[in-house]
Design a protein that fits this description.
Layout: E1 10-11, H1 13-20, H2 24-32, E2 40-42, E3 45-49, H3 50-60
Antiparallel strand pairs: 1-3, 2-3
Length: about 80
């Protein structure tokens, strides 16, 4: 997860897949299909806000409350 001073935390792809409890392929597919809006492009990848991840999960009918996943912050 990337913390920008004064900004919202940004989830890197690995953090996003752990948070959503899905594979990297699912995150990439959702982005390509327009379900998941990246906050920014960083190098050859993307970062996401928690709000964008939650909205995507809600739209697609996923329920995070059924998982025992917690995000591990690196750094």
């Amino acid at each position: 997860m990337i913390h920008v001073p004064g900004g919202v935390p940004l989830y890197q792809p690995m953090d996003a897949q752990v948070y959503c409890n899905v594979s990297a392929q699912s995150i990439n597919r959702w982005r390509r299909e327009g379900w998941l809006k990246p906050a920014a492009a960083v190098g050859r990848g993307y970062v996401y806000t928690k709000q964008a991840l939650d909205e995507c999960l809600h739209t697609l009918g996923y329920d995070r409350r059924d998982t025992n996943v917690e995000v591990i912050q690196h750094g």
